[in-house]
Amino acid sequence: MIERLAIIGVGLIGGSLARALRAAGAVGEIVGCGRSLGNLERALELGVVDRITQNPAEAVREADMVFLAVPLGAMRGALAAMRDSLRPEAIVTDGGSVKCSVVEDARAVFGRVPPRLVPGHPIAGTEHSGVEASFAELYRDRRVILTPLAETDPEAVARVTAMWQTCGAEVTAMSVAHHDEVLAATSHLPHMLAFGLVDSLARMRENDEIFRYAAGGFRDFTRIASSNPVMWRDICLANREALSAMLARFGVEMTDLAESIRRSDGEHLLEIFARAKAARDRYVDQARPVHEDADRSSSQT
Amino acid sequence: MIERLAIIGVGLIGGSLARALRAAGAVGEIVGCGRSLGNLERALELGVVDRITQNPAEAVREADMVFLAVPLGAMRGALAAMRDSLRPEAIVTDGGSVKCSVVEDARAVFGRVPPRLVPGHPIAGTEHSGVEASFAELYRDRRVILTPLAETDPEAVARVTAMWQTCGAEVTAMSVAHHDEVLAATSHLPHMLAFGLVDSLARMRENDEIFRYAAGGFRDFTRIASSNPVMWRDICLANREALSAMLARFGVEMTDLAESIRRSDGEHLLEIFARAKAARDRYVDQARPVHEDADRSSSQT
């Protein structure tokens, strides 16, 4: 049971945690904190939070659990703003998509990573943002990755784990570096490809016509290019090393593919496509949760 | 009104054309031809075709309209097999995803491109294949691109246009070269990226774990990597030039993006992402038909 939860950044991620814990009766008071007063007032109207403030120091003053759901670029400022008001027993966790930068921010602000800071990342979200988009089921059957350090207090890890399990999530732990590599591969790289593809087409002279003939497969493929540009700039800067490595690996793959096309090496192309299809089909079979839409929608040629 | 339609390749594309024309009462007899006897017999059971044969020459003998819906790699063989049995007034059209190779195949087989051959491409499909997957509405509100040559008989173009309009499609005409460029950009390149991404992840040591943490955005993004490898090998070989040019263009884009990440140029990254998001959002708004799912589904970070 959390007595007083402070949520810094009451958007889709923070708002959905509040709704889920409330629905489970696992929290007492919820204090919402953020920069947009309009969004905070809406959160209050919707009953997502009980009290609002734009001052992080005030938000955390009596909290036993603090959840940071601000963009990666705002993490350090938020930690600095709350530093001197945190109760010693307060547990702080976050929802940042990159963990090395959050750990670095904590070191910069506290001089070390506080034992009761538990870096975390719920692998969930939608394209929509703001408290309006939040819902209690967002984390059900989703994975949450925690990346505790050697100095992290195990009891704090246990409480954060319990909090996410209450929301229906499956919690796993891994190292900060490994988390950032896995996310670079499965999320950050795909977003770069979608942004890069749409941008390169948008810059072609006949781009309006190009998009006119794009079909359903293109719509699915480029959906993630509609994500928040500022959030993604922050992710790129925060996960620079792991993402650069994945981009280089992908570059080698695409050079091989392009070379095979240039020299009409059908056998090698078939090998690449068959291996990819097998891996993708296996992934969809294994994927939890299995969405009914797992193989809906179309892929036009 | 088509008196006798011969469909060479009774799969998703050929079967759906048969169903649509039948539903519209716009066709007399439909003869189905293909290599898989099992699929042909199923087509007969389902009432998609009235008569079946594995011999293209026999299939087209009395046809006034012939639709070629075989993989690009099988086009030349199919044209050669029917060449001497076509009635002089018969119109031949196809559904190939690349038009330059079909025109080249026709030249090779007939010594010139027959005036009553109308190269075409319905921009529609699903991941599923075979006659079982065919349905009468596949082409409704979809685009069909025809690429007639200077020597193509306008009356033949008019009849093929009418055939597709009967299926509910919007028919437009463009040059062979332009079609192949537009499709390289909107369909062939995205498929290369999806295949390349999934393959490069599948080849990582910890690939099972990688895929385990992949979320919904990844599922959407890589859906097209589940497409038929043989069909895609053929498309790559058939559209080698235009696709190679698009791959090169995309390579330049990704090099710029990777460089910006390496040097932490947040301003340039933001510019790229914002331009891509604007183009993608504009595209979804304009997209016809607007699917209810146009911005459903999630994009995890």
Automatic annotation (TrEMBL), chains A, B:
<keyword id="KW-0057">Aromatic amino acid biosynthesis</keyword>
<dbReference type="InterPro" id="IPR036291">
    <property type="entry name" value="NAD(P)-bd_dom_sf"/>
</dbReference>
<dbReference type="InterPro" id="IPR008927">
    <property type="entry name" value="6-PGluconate_DH-like_C_sf"/>
</dbReference>
<dbReference type="InterPro" id="IPR003099">
    <property type="entry name" value="Prephen_DH"/>
</dbReference>
<keyword id="KW-0520">NAD</keyword>
<dbReference type="GO" id="GO:0004665">
    <property type="term" value="F:prephenate dehydrogenase (NADP+) activity"/>
</dbReference>
<comment type="pathway">
    <text>Amino-acid biosynthesis; L-tyrosine biosynthesis; (4-hydroxyphenyl)pyruvate from prephenate (NAD(+) route): step 1/1.</text>
</comment>
<keyword id="KW-0827">Tyrosine biosynthesis</keyword>
<feature type="domain" description="Prephenate/arogenate dehydrogenase">
    <location>
        <begin position="3"/>
        <end position="291"/>
    </location>
</feature>
<dbReference type="GO" id="GO:0008977">
    <property type="term" value="F:prephenate dehydrogenase (NAD+) activity"/>
</dbReference>
<comment type="similarity">
    <text>Belongs to the prephenate/arogenate dehydrogenase family.</text>
</comment>
<dbReference type="GO" id="GO:0006571">
    <property type="term" value="P:tyrosine biosynthetic process"/>
</dbReference>
<dbReference type="InterPro" id="IPR046826">
    <property type="entry name" value="PDH_N"/>
</dbReference>
<keyword id="KW-0560">Oxidoreductase</keyword>
<dbReference type="Pfam" id="PF02153">
    <property type="entry name" value="PDH_N"/>
</dbReference>
<protein>
    <recommendedName>
        <fullName>prephenate dehydrogenase</fullName>
        <ecNumber>1.3.1.12</ecNumber>
    </recommendedName>
</protein>
<keyword id="KW-0028">Amino-acid biosynthesis</keyword>
<dbReference type="InterPro" id="IPR046825">
    <property type="entry name" value="PDH_C"/>
</dbReference>
<dbReference type="GO" id="GO:0070403">
    <property type="term" value="F:NAD+ binding"/>
</dbReference>
<dbReference type="Pfam" id="PF20463">
    <property type="entry name" value="PDH_C"/>
</dbReference>
<dbReference type="InterPro" id="IPR050812">
    <property type="entry name" value="Preph/Arog_dehydrog"/>
</dbReference>
